[in-house]
Amino acid sequence: MRAATLLTTFVIGAWLVQGDPDPEKTIKDIVKGMEDATAVLKTVKDERSAEAAVPKLEEAMKRLSEACAAENRIRLGDPAFAKQTQKHVSQLSDANRSLKAEDERLAKQRELQKILFKSPAWAWAKYDGLSPRSLVGCARMDIKTLETGVLAFYLKKGYLPETLQQLTKRDPIDNSPAIFASDSILKDPWGRNYLYDPGVFHPQTDKPLIYSVGPDPKTQDGRISNWD
């Protein structure tokens, strides 16, 4: 049985890490990177604080990108990585949700977004905060959080969920809590359900496919997936 590996946030750059990544350090670095970026964004209240946040945001986002790049190189069969993922799934989900909340707050303030875009790493992650494409970053975060949930489900049950909806429901047999407390994670920023195919696996990472059709379902180019 194959299952998802973990990448809890969107891919934001090409800073690559050499050598074999340590699973525990990698997951802790991802959580810390998201928490640091969130802490920086929380300080942004006006143009002056936005300017002061730019170098700190750039540093945090680069560290987060490096951690994500390291995670991408850990293969599914690594038992230490699976153990650490299960151990830290709540922290990963909480950190992702907090970062997304700050991102959504600032997305409504265009002048502040323009200033934050002086950070190349943040600008790349957000693409273009003045257009609907800014929602792509939110979709990527959701998809990677869902990927986390799929792996946690697999580690608990020994098989992949048939649907993403199973991640938000109590176990009908032992009544154990759902992976995610709310089903709001199941819809993309455009109000459509995220799609999932537990029978289609990435040829190199063994990740089952999770995706959104993106801003325009009529075009294949807009699709956003955990394989990107």
Radius of gyration: 17 Å
Sheet/helix structural class: mainly alpha
Proportion of beta-strand residues: 5-15%
* Oligomeric state as shown: single chain
Provide the fold topology:
Blueprint: H1 23-42, H2 47-72, H3 79-107, H4 110-116, H5 120-126, H6 135-157, E1 195-201, E2 208-212, E3 224-225
Antiparallel strand pairs: 1-2, 2-3
Helix pairs in contact: 1-2, 1-3, 2-4, 3-6
Notable characteristics:
228 residues; mainly alpha; 6 helices; disordered N terminus
Structural commentary:
The structure is a single chain. The chain is mainly alpha-helical and 228 residues long. It has one domain (23-225). The chain has six helices and three strands. Strands 1-2-3 form a three-stranded antiparallel β-sheet, with helices on one face. The relative contact order is 0.16. Mean pLDDT is 79; it is low at 1-18 and 128-133.
Brief characterization of the structure:
The chain has 228 residues and is mainly α. Helix content is 49%, strand content 6%.
